[in-house]
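Recap from last week: sequence in, structure out.
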Amino acid sequence: MKILIVEDEPSLRELMTRTLVNEQHVVETASTYAEAESRLGSYAYDCVLLDIMLPDGNGLKLLESLKAQRRTERVIILSAKDALEDKVLGLELGADDYLPKPFHLMELSARIRSVARRGRDGQREFTWGNVSLDPEKRRVEVAGVELPLLRKEFDILAYFMQRPGYLVDKAVLAEAVWGDHVDQADNFQFVYAQMKNLRRKLSDAGATIEIRAVYGFGYKLLVPAARA
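Predicted structure tokens:
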């Protein structure tokens, strides 16, 4: 998952970042309302961990803006303000969960997994052709046999398994899997290298799906029912 942490307290922000990166998430951070607004205006995320009390604004205003734009990010409010009215207001504005500070990082991880499942309408596993992918267990099987993948290979496959038949721009793929620092990259060789390895592994394992390159644009996941 790609997660944005909006938190002004440096030590907590760093601790959450390390924990979530270790759990194989792509993590970006913002310490102010303005920085969070800028990131949300430029990038898409799977989940936003949102503090209410920011030095230059109220996090609930960001939540209200996201919902007004019909954005799909799941939002978990993190706040030392545990008053009932704040929790109720946040949930009424469209937050998916509310976790008062202080909290255990294990609970935060569990809450993220929970809202991610809701984001998939309860779907825990994706299956196309003879390939199955379990996002929580980070496990891929081809015809019932586990296919070992490196971290980024798995992230790429997970991205496409959720978007069968969609033409995905290589820049969009890079930003979704590697984070917004890819803006500084001179080329997409790192995407090409990972994609080449993933496609080879799928082919060698006898997968009936194919991630096909579309020249000059990006890639598309083809599943058996979509083949000509």
